Amino acid sequence: MQDYRELLKKARANLPARKGDVRFEMPRASVYVTGRMTTVKNFAEIVKALRREPKHMAKYLFKELATPGEIKGGELVLQGIFSSFVINSKVENYAEEFVYCHECGKPDTSFVRTDRIEQIKCEACGARRPAPQV
User: Fold this and answer.
1) Which of 35, 44, 98, 130 has CA atoms 20 to 30 A from the CA of 124?
2) What is the DSSP-derived secondary structure letter of residue 37?
3) Are residues 93 and 120 in the same domain?
4) What is the distance between the alpha carbons of residues 21 and 41, in angstroms, rounded to a whole number?
5) How many CB atoms neighbour CB 122 within 10 A?
6) Is the domain of 86 the same as that of 51?
7) Mean pLDDT of the chain
8) Sorting pLDDT into bands at 50, 70 and 90, what band is 7?
């Protein structure tokens, strides 16, 4: 009979190679400027990856960038000139505040309304926390 360590080595040898621990990768914003307007071309893709409502994320970006704008099709149009670095950093801040679980760090969260309180519930660990106001 084989001892435990030999069986463990054999089992690990049969496992498929790991490609890394990253299972969620947020898409980078594709930004272009025309005149005094900045357009985020892949806004719909970003919102879909984060599993959030486009209006909620757009409202956050309008507030953080202190500029008006609108959603046209799958694009976000902002009044003003903003670099892709600024837009991407604001999207990452949004994800930290509204998407990632503060307990386990996973992006598997959703908004849940309990009575009149909006909460962010983690589907991975079950943690709940109040959703910050936008």
Assistant:
1) 44
2) E
3) no
4) 28
5) 20
6) yes
7) 90
8) confident
Q: Token match 């490609």: residue?
A: 19
Do residues 105 and 90 both lie within one domain? no
Q: Which two tokens stand for residue 102?
A: 């503060």
Q: DSSP letters of 42-82?
A: THHHHHHHHT--HHHHHHHHHHHHT--EEEETTEEEEES--
Structure tokens at 23: 């299972």
Do 32 and 78 sit in the same domain of this protein?
A: yes
Burial class (CB in 10 A: 0-12, 13-18, 19+), 134: middle
Indicate if the alpha-carbon torsion angle 63, 68, 72, 75 is positive or negative. Answer: negative
Give 51-62 pLDDT, tens digit per residue: 999 999 999 999
Coil, strand, or helix at residue 24?
coil
For residues 93 and 104, membership in a common domain is answered with no
Element (H, E) at 91: helix 84-98
Q: Domain containing 43: what range?
A: 25-98
